[in-house]
Amino acid sequence: MGKPFTEELKLNYDSLNWVSELNLDALKKSIESCRNTTVYIIGSGGSLSACYLLEFLFEQNGVVAKSVTPLEVMYSKKNFSNSSFFLVSSSGKNKDILFAYKSIIKENPKALHTICMAKGSPLRKLSDLYSKAKIYEYEIPTGRDGFLATNSLLAYFAIFTRVFGELKGLNALKENVRDISKTIKEFSGKIDASYTLFVLYSGSSKCVAMDIESKCIEASLCDLTTADYRNFGHGRHNWFDKRPKNSAIVLLTNNIDRSLAEKTIKVLPKAIPSIIIDSKCQFPMSSIDQLLQSFRLVEVLGKNANIDPGRPGVPEFGRKLYNLSYYSIFKKKSSVSTRAYNSIYRKIGVLDIDNPKLLKAWNKSYENFIKKIKSEKLTTIIFDFDGTLCSSLKRYEGVDDIIKSRLIEILEKGFLIGISTGRGKSARENLQTFIPEKFYDNVFISYYNGFETGNLGQNELPNLKLEAEESILKSYEILKSKLKGYEVSIELRPGQITIEIESKNNAGKLKSYIKGTILSHADLNVQILESDHSIDIIPKNTSKLSIVNFCKQQEKTLGLKGSYLCIGDKGMWPGNDYKLLGASLSLSVDEVSLEKDTCWNLASLGLSNVEATEEYLSKIRFYENHMKFEINK
Q1: Given CB 3.0 to 4.6 Å as the disulfide criterion, which of 147, 250, 424, 531 pairs with 2?
Q2: Beta strand segments in 361-470, E
């Protein structure tokens, strides 16, 4: 098992050049989407070093992030539903990362992203099961690493550097490695495998310090411990007083902490062997520079120990430990069905789901809702548009392909469809591209969150020539004045103001500022709604449910008599579906309210938005003059 470590190092620059050509746009979008959540970054072994770099990059951009092992994350379940996750794995198949994945998806995380250096892995198969999950696979041309993470780890460092900055100055990195090689050789002549190394670091160098520790311990090259420069000053320095003969220091320095390192080394006894791994590159390139230099240190430490770090040999008990199964330790039994548990969890969250009395009470409400929705005879289904019929990430492409055939089937069976959206004519134009004209009278669209409604054939709608209501005009003037100079776009329509926030760094603050500005003017007589991409200001008397009367009138014309089902994604105020999903019979494909008798999310584990809508529509059964929603409890 393994590869010669020296041979792996010869491929380092091939790995960097390969990363420089990768298309990372999708990964960048996923990372940007996590700005308003806590982020957990999970990895084992060498991949954990990459997690530390990604953690630091997130935190330098104002995002709270934490690197953990798959086992550590199991003790953070109370935070899962409010967090985003990045799983970093070279092979995508070790038991620990797979177990972590399965455990996280059960807790309804905000997002679950996987970054893997192999294609078609078990992680890929898991990811394909869940719409909330995204996977980014990069098949590194240098092939699988030896015993230690080398080129895959370097590739991760380079990928994260490109996502947050630029990958540049590769020739300078080669020179730095050449320069450090002589220094490393001199250092290695002063120590042997019996020495304990102290690796000191700060900030951006932590990821490299953790990797040196990982490699030296995993390959049994020497004893080693790590500390940041100041924590080292809180007692750990005493080691050098009591054991000066078999101790040495490795200092990681860069442009930020070089002076701190110099002050530290001046205080320490001169007889203690030391080496400085320095980078004059700007972060995050400095981390790549230091990683490459540290690889050469590990190579020489291996020679001192007469061990090839790339193939040190693995004992039988080591293989058993690597493949150890421990799933049963964390398995939890529930007194309610899996679907009930997931649905109730979405209502009350992780802190209350473990309360037996609350769970029992909510399970009764759940069962009552299931009984009600299964018994109703449906003749109309009313949908939100963005996030429900089309992905918010692909909103300009319109209704998702997996939904189109389901909608047409409803119309072919003689029933009605309503679309209640914050959009204008773009929703109508997209629907007209795939719905046959003969069904236009049975499809109603309520534009701008219910301000104006008509059937699919009424191309004159929405009527932008209408005069805007006074409350909307007044709100627009206030917002235009208050938001001048901020990274936002404001669009005025007759029945709606749409505000899109272009700033990635201050989106949360700007949303609060906009809402506070409107709410501070009690006389405006407007309401505030949010979608994934905008804030909408609409008149107080406007509602997405205004579409119901239009649908009911058409039902009379067709001789239909039944109930309507509403499906949307933003059921909790200020979500723009909170009124739509406040109807007596409604399903959410994402956010739910605390209403006990409506606005339930019954989607299977890991499904949300468009995929959840498709699942709901797959439960529709057609009868002569009505539809039924049939689902198991």
Answers
A1: 147
A2: 378-383, 416-420, 443-447, 452-455
DSSP-derived secondary structure for 167-219: ---HHHHHHHHHHHHHHHHHHHTT--TTPEEEEEE-GGGHHHHHHHHHHHHHT
3-41 confidence digits (pLDDT tens): 999 999 999 999 999 999 999 999 999 999 898 899 999
CA distance 516 to 514: 5
Give the position of tokens 């591209």. 433
Distance of CA 151 to the CA centre of its chain: 25
Cβ atoms of residues 340 and 633 within 8 Å: yes
Burial of 319 (0-12, 13-18, 19+ CB in 10 A): exposed
- Domains observed in the chain: 170-324 (3.40.50.10490), 369-463+543-629 (3.40.50.1000), 470-539 (3.90.1070.10)
Distance CA 217, CA 211 (A): 10
Assess contact for 157 and 208: CB atoms under 8 A: no
pTM of the model: 0.87
Q: What span, in angstroms and rounded, lies between the C-alpha atoms of 460 and 454? A: 9
Residue type at 590 in one-letter notation: D
User: Residue 348: enclosing H or E segment and its boundaries?
Assistant: helix 338-348
- With a CB cutoff of 8 Å and minimum separation 6, the contacts of 499 are 479, 483, 488, 489, 490, 491, 514, 534, 535, 536, 537
End-to-end Cα spacing for the chain: 49
Sheet holding 65-68, edge to edge: 65-68, 38-42, 83-89, 111-116, 133-137
In SS3 terms, 2-16 reads as CCCHHHHHCCHHHHH
Angle at 165 between CA 164 and CA 169, to 5 degrees: 145
Chain mean position to CA 112: 5
3-state secondary structure of 311: coil
State how far the alpha carbon of 570 is from the alpha carbons of 10, 262, 475, in Å.
53, 55, 24
Contacts 24+ apart (CB under 8 A), 608-612: 608/131, 608/132, 608/569, 609/131, 609/387, 609/388, 609/391, 609/392, 609/569, 610/131, 610/387, 610/388, 610/389, 610/390, 610/391, 610/400, 610/402, 610/403, 611/131, 611/402, 612/131
Distance of CA 618 to the CA centre of its chain: 27
- pLDDT for res 1: 62
* Residue of 122, 119, 99 whose CA lies nearest to 42: 99
Q: Other CB atoms closer than 10 Å to residue 584's CB: what's the count?
A: 14
* Amino acid code (one letter) for 155: A
Provide the 8-state DSSP code for 144: S
- Cα diameter, the chain: 96
Position 78 confidence tier, pLDDT thresholds 50, 70, 90:
confident
| Residues near 614 by beta carbon (within 8 Å), at least 6 away in sequence | 400, 402, 403, 406
The residues, ordered by sequence, that sit 6+ positions from 522 with a Cβ below 8 Å of its Cβ are none
Task: Name the residue type at position 413.
Answer: K
Interhelix angle 151-164/285-305, rounded to 10 degrees, is: 170
- Mean pLDDT, the chain, as a whole number? 93
Task: Dump pLDDT digits (tens) for 128-171.
Answer: 988 889 999 999 999 999 999 999 999 999 999 999 999 988 88
